[in-house]
Amino acid sequence: MAISFLPELPVYTLLVLLALPLYYLYFGASSRWKNPVALPRNWPILHMFPSFVANIHNLHDYYTRILARSGHNFRAHGPPGSGIRLFVTCDPANVRHIFTTNYTNFPKGAEFAAIFDIMGGTLFTIDGEPCRRQRAKVKAVLSSPPIVARFAACCRDKLETSLLPIFSHMASTGTPFNMQEMMSRCMFDLAATPLFGVDPGLLSLDMPSMDAALAMDTVMEVGHYRHVMPTYCWKLMRWLNIGTERKLGIAHMVLQGFILDMMERRTTDRCNACSDEEQDGVDIVSSFVNDPDYADFGLFRAAMISLMLGARDTISTTLTWTFYNLAQNSNIVTIIRNELSPIASRKVASGLGAMLIFEPDETKSLLYLAAALYKTLRLYPPAPVERKTAAANDFMPSGHEVHAGDTIFICLHSMGRMETLWGKDCLDYNPARWLSEDGNSLIYAPSHKFLAFNSGPRMCLGKDIAMMQMKIIIATVVWNFDVQMVEGQSIEPKRSCLLEMKNGLIVKITKRQM
Ligand code: HEM
């Protein structure tokens, strides 16, 4: 019997292979018929998982399309056993509920902490009482006047000693370069120097290797895979030490080595310094080294890595998207220069050289410049998706029910692109939309609608420092140089938890003739 069956085996195999796609086509079509057309296709067994995998190259646009059609919210499920039970939203009323009104019911959760295990136990991955304690500490450090002044001084020095000389060289030689990489190097130095009191010197004409910066990129890229994959998949890969998990393991080692290196260099520098008093309090790490809460070196190291990630990636990403938009809108560049012009005239009159650097107190009140940055942050938030977990069953203001254990994805990127929230021209890069009619103030947008810096009790603690640094850098570059994009490049987001550009941003710059 078995022997007589064997010759027909290829025929049966062929039939099964043909039947499978037909089965999926049939059920795909019928499920589409049963589902509202706005939602991803609900396949048998695999549910919506194939739709997400097929769109993984640009999940943000995919979410935006579905959220726009579905009234700002949708639910999605993965295959049975995958643990994927999502509620995806960009509805400001739901965001206020999740981040403020009922925020204790929406912690980041254990899954988030596992995804970003390199920052395990630190403010960025914890909830509840330990979080309140760490947050109070970090808040006190980041708002202390000497530390804020240090961030400003480092930024000024970096512009004077590195960025302007490098840009002048690129301009005089006509060399195209990757603005994203340049901003990444610059912000790496500007995050590390106030943190450790040591400048890693990545922004330099000889372009030294940037292993630790690349390792930080890997953390964000593999974090993205971990968010969309069933947990057991990436945990199995980690156990087998293969693929992206192997890459992440190496990145962790590089980052841990970087922290050790910085601490050693800091000790050497302190030995060479005049006195301890002169050094104390001028770097952030001083507030952590003698704190018994951070006596565990693993936690201390994780805290330093998370501060590096929080302070570098967010700003370099925002700066790159701002330069991208300015390069395409020369009228906006002209308005920014007009706003800078009175300050520049005063500087020139007081005898300062041809290359001008703008100071924090000079750029603080510049509204149009702030509006341009806000416009970038609305359309291109560096952290495009926030993740929360529902601790208990709850009803959203939109009427949707969420169940304990559901994962909530809050799509900031989509929220900034909803016509229903921001009007028909919401995709235009028009900073004036952020200004009042008389142009004398910025229009207020509540943080649950403009979420780039987060909202509620977990608001970003570095917002003021970030705005200060970004204003100085944009003002200084825009005043001294013309930036043009090199033609023929494709600008698309990387698969990452950060909204970086996949292929970078290749530009050419010329020195302004004044
Ligand atoms: C354009 C610049 C920045 C943006 C858009 C931004 C955005 C954010 C966002 C969205 C969060 C919430 C993250 C989460 O809970 O998952 C956050 C948290 C945080 N940010 Fe920023 N950030 C920026 C710059 C900075 C800088 C420069 C610093 C430090 C100097 C900083 C320090 C922090 C800290 C400590 C938290 C944790 C707050 C908490 O969990 O309670 N950020 N930021």
TrEMBL record:
Cofactor(s) this protein requires: heme
UniProt keyword annotation of Membrane present: yes
Cleavable signal peptide: none
Residue ranges of the TM segments: 9-27
Keyword Magnesium: no
Entry-linked PROSITE patterns: CYTOCHROME_P450
GO BP field: lipid metabolic process
Keywords: Heme, Iron, Membrane, Metal-binding, Monooxygenase, Oxidoreductase, Transmembrane, Transmembrane helix
GO molecular function, one term: oxidoreductase activity, acting on paired donors, with incorporation or reduction of molecular oxygen
Superkingdom of the organism of origin: Eukaryota
Annotated positions binding heme: 460
Pfam families for the chain: p450
UniProt-listed PANTHER family: CYTOCHROME P450 (PTHR24296)
Family statement: Belongs to the cytochrome P450 family.
Protein name: Cytochrome P450
